[in-house]
Every structure is written in structure tokens, then in C-alpha cells.
Design brief:
468 residues, mainly alpha, 2 domains, two-stranded antiparallel ribbon
Length: 468
């Protein structure tokens, strides 16, 4: 072992950054966001496949309604709602069934695109073995953004009369909402695609949106938006089933994911307070259970119980947002701002509906639903995307050597400047190295100690010291 190696080993503390390892020594592969234990959700793959299948079925219903209404004279409208029950209006003709296959194909295409967009790394690797193109991050994010954009456009299309008062009519509103939602979800998906909790909950929110869309496309309730959003679930037919099943399954998915949605907040870097994570999870479960109640108890049945469920979801969400700075000490500022902004938007919507009557209950309910799911998606994306502590943070006890004199400026310029400084030092003189003392002082010390013992101890070998 030469002198330089001995100095590195014996200096120890100042040159070691992580538990005795010299700085620069490998410490294992860093945890990548989205692939660590924080993102593991038991049964997530099965859950995503189930939600994608239900979304594909709802998309097929929408496609069938549009195809038959455009090319078969509108025969798909098979009921009329008189306020109490649905009565036959126009029967579905046999020739309309020819559009079943194209509608199913459209649903399969939507489901397959969402499966690819929400697949894990292992799933993408398995698909690439078959040589399938377009499986990159941008392509998957584009599929997600296009789906959400189409949802916004079709939602405005099915409620076109509600947007007559806006400049440009429902067409301008559809283009605006579709573009904003499509681009926003594209960027979000590309940013958070590695987070399994996000990919799964994105499908939970999409199921509620597409299920409601399927109900809008075939509902016999007429201008349902003039009453309330829950009117979609009151017709006692397939349209009501689309809405009620979607909201029940989405609520169950939210409640089941309460732990996964908040797991990142429990990391030490956020400084979660005692009991705060449990409180957040309980509130999310309450929101999910209340949403299930909204779907299980239609508003035309036990109206009081239905309203209690809806109010419970709104109250739980309000507490979740208002206490954002109570749950943890160092939550990202963007999440705090989003939480308070959600409360402000909800209060403004409530005043506009109940106070001055700018819009009806339907708009308020849609705003409330959107805020809940958007905030939970933001919770996952922001907390998982916050920067992890670096190695430098764990080496705060190391004080770098201070460089003084004429070499300070050279040291700040980089390795090339330091090499040039060695060849051409300031003043034109190459300083001689000062001679160092004997390197094996520890070995000589052990020998002298053994000689001083005398008697039998003098014959014992000195303590073994590794030389190299």
C-alpha cells in the first residue's frame, strides 16, 4: 500500500459521504421515481384492465348512438321520458344493427389505446417484443390526451342547447374545452407516466367521464342539464345504468386507492404530522363511499339520502383541501395553491348557483366532480414528482478544503486550468515537495511496544497491521 492510499484510508471521516464509503464510491442504483415501493399498488394491473374494459364498453355505446343517429335516421332514440317513466317512442330497426360491429371496433380501439397509455414498464416491454410501433412516452401521452379531448367535445355535443348563450355557440365551446383538456392531459400524462398510482387513478376518473358520456348519448330525459347532473341516473334503463354503474365503480376505485394516493406524502421529506396520513386516507375513502351512495341511491328515489351522500363528498373534499398545510409541514407549494384554489372555485360556483342564479345545479355538480378528481390526480403527480434528496444533502457534515492564494482562481476554472497551472505555475518556479516522515509509524510503534514488554510477552508477534 503506497503513501497516498494509506492517507485516504486513515483520513476516513472527511472523505466518506455515506456510512464510511469514500466519496464517489458506488452506493447502489438510485431509486427511480415511479418504479420504487412508493408506487406499488397491489392488483393495479388487473384494476387498470378492468377499468379500460368498462371504458371501452361505454365508448362502444357512444359510437353506436352516433353512427345510428347519423346514418340511420335517428332510430337509436328508443324512449321518451315523461318525468315519471320511460315510454317507447321509436323502435330500433333491424338495419341499425349493422352498425354494431363498427361501434364495437371503436370501443376496442379506445380500450386498447388506454391499455397501452396506462401500461407499466413490464407491459410495454412485453408489447415491444411483438414489434408494435408508437409505444414511446409521447405516443402514450398523446393517446391519453386525445381521449380526454374527445370526451370534452362529445359532452358539449350532447348538451349543445346549454351553450347557445356563449359566443360562437356550442361549436366554439367544444373546440375550446377539447383543446384545453386534451393538451393539459397530454402534458400531465407525459410528466407523470411513470407513477403507477397516477396511471390507475387516471382511468378511474375517465370511467366516470365516459360512463356519463354514454348516458348523455342515449338518455330519454330530454334537457336533463336543466335539472341536475343526477337526473342521468333516473330513467331506469341502460342510460341510467351507464351513469350509476360508472359513478359507483369510480367511487369504489377511489376508496380502494386511498393508501396509494397518499403514500408519497408519508415520505420524510414532506414532514407529515402524526395521524395526518390516516386522516387524509379516511377523507378520501369517505369521498369514494359517498360517490357510491350517489349512484346506488338515485335522486328520484330516496332524495334525502342521495343529497346526504352528495353533501358528504363535498364536505370531505373541502376538509381535505383546507387542511393541506396541517397534513404535512413541507408539501409542495403548487399543491397548496391548487388546494386553496379548488376551495375558492367551489365557493364561487356555489354562490353563482345558489346566490345569484347564474347557472343551475348541474353546472355546480360538474364543477365539484371535476375538482375532486383533478385534485387527487394533482396530489399523486406533484408529490411523486418532487425532487428527491441528493447525495450532497446527506454530506452536509463535510467541509470542503478552502483553496487560497494564487491557486484559488485556477481551482475555480476547472480541471484543464489546473493542469495548465501545474505545467506553468505562478512565478515560473515549480515548488519542491516537502519530504514526508516515515509512512509506517504504526508498525514501528507496535514493534517498540512489544520489545518493552519483556519476558514472554517480548516473544509474541506485534499486532497485525495490513500493509497492502
Amino acid at each position: 500500500m503506497d503513501r497516498q492510499q494509506r492517507r485516504v484510508v486513515r483520513s476516513g471521516r472527511a472523505d466518506r459521504g455515506l456510512h464510511g464509503r469514500p466519496i464517489g464510491a458506488p452506493t447502489g442504483a438510485p431509486r427511480q421515481r415511479g418504479t420504487g415501493r412508493l408506487d406499488v399498488l397491489p392488483g393495479a394491473g388487473l384494476m387498470r384492465r378492468g377499468f379500460a374494459l368498462l371504458i371501452a364498453l361505454a365508448a362502444a355505446i357512444v359510437a353506436f348512438q352516433e353512427l345510428t343517429s347519423q346514418f340511420a335516421g335517428g332510430h337509436a332514440q328508443v324512449h321518451m321520458y315523461d318525468g315519471h317513466s320511460a315510454v317507447p317512442l321509436v323502435e330500433l330497426h333491424a338495419q341499425d344493427l349493422v352498425w354494431t360491429l363498427p361501434a364495437l371496433a371503436a370501443g376496442v380501439a379506445v380500450g386498447a389505446a388506454l391499455m397501452v397509455a396506462s401500461a407499466s414498464r413490464g407491459g410495454i416491454a412485453a408489447l415491444r417484443r411483438f414489434g408494435l410501433p408508437g409505444l414511446g412516452r409521447d405516443a402514450r401521452a398523446r393517446a391519453n390526451g386525445m381521449t380526454w379531448g374527445a370526451v370534452a367535445v362529445l359532452a358539449v355535443h350532447f348538451t349543445g342547447k346549454a351553450f347557445v348563450v356563449f359566443p360562437g355557440g356550442h361549436n366554439a365551446v367544444a373546440v375550446t374545452l377539447g383543446s384545453v383538456l386534451g393538451i393539459g392531459t397530454f402534458r400531465l400524462h407525459r410528466h407523470a407516466i411513470e407513477h403507477e398510482a397516477y396511471r390507475t387513478f387516471n382511468l378511474v376518473a375517465m370511467l366516470l367521464a365516459v360512463g356519463s358520456l354514454a348516458s348523455m348519448s342515449i338518455t330519454p330525459t330530454g334537457a336533463w342539464w336543466t335539472h341536475n347532473f343526477s337526473t342521468l341516473g333516473t330513467s331506469d334503463d341502460i342510460a341510467a345504468a351507464c351513469f350509476n354503474v360508472a359513478i359507483v365503480v369510480s367511487g369504489a376505485g377511489m376508496a380502494a386507492m386511498a393508501v396509494s394516493l397518499t403514500r408519497a406524502v408519508a415520505e420524510p421529506r414532506f414532514g407529515a404530522r402524526r395521524g395526518a396520513i390516516t386522516a387524509m386516507r379516511v377523507l378520501i375513502v369517505l369521498i369514494g363511499v359517498c360517490l357510491m351512495g350517489v349512484g346506488l341511491v338515485p335522486i328520484d328515489g330516496a332524495t334525502g339520502l342521495h343529497n346526504v351522500a352528495a353533501s358528504g363528498a363535498a364536505a370531505s373534499f373541502a376538509v381535505l383541501c383546507l387542511g393541506v398545510q396541517l397534513w404535512a409541514k413541507r408539501l409542495p407549494r403548487s399543491l397548496v395553491v391548487a388546494s386553496y384554489a379548488s376551495i375558492v372555485i367551489e365557493v364561487i360556483a356555489m354562490v353563482a348557483y345558489d346566490g345569484i342564479g347564474v347557472f343551475n345545479l348541474t353546472v355546480f355538480e360538474i364543477v365539484a366532480f371535476t375538482l375532486v378528481f383533478a385534485w387527487l390526480i394533482a396530489l399523486v403527480a406533484i408529490t411523486h414528482a418532487s425532487p428527491q434528496p441528493t447525495d450532497a444533502a446527506s454530506r452536509r457534515h463535510i467541509v470542503p478544503a478552502r483553496v487560497t492564494g494564487p491557486h484559488a482562481a485556477v481551482a475555480a476554472e476547472g480541471p484543464r486550468a489546473r493542469t495548465a497551472a501545474r505545467r506553468h505555475p505562478p512565478g515560473g518556479r515549480i515548488p519542491r515537495r516537502t519530504p514526508r516522515g516515515p509512512a509506517r509509524t504504526a508498525t514501528l510503534h507496535d514493534v517498540h511496544r512489544a520489545l518493552r514488554r519483556g519476558g514472554e510477552g517480548a516473544d509474541e508477534p506485534p499486532d497485525a497491521v495490513p500493509i497492502g
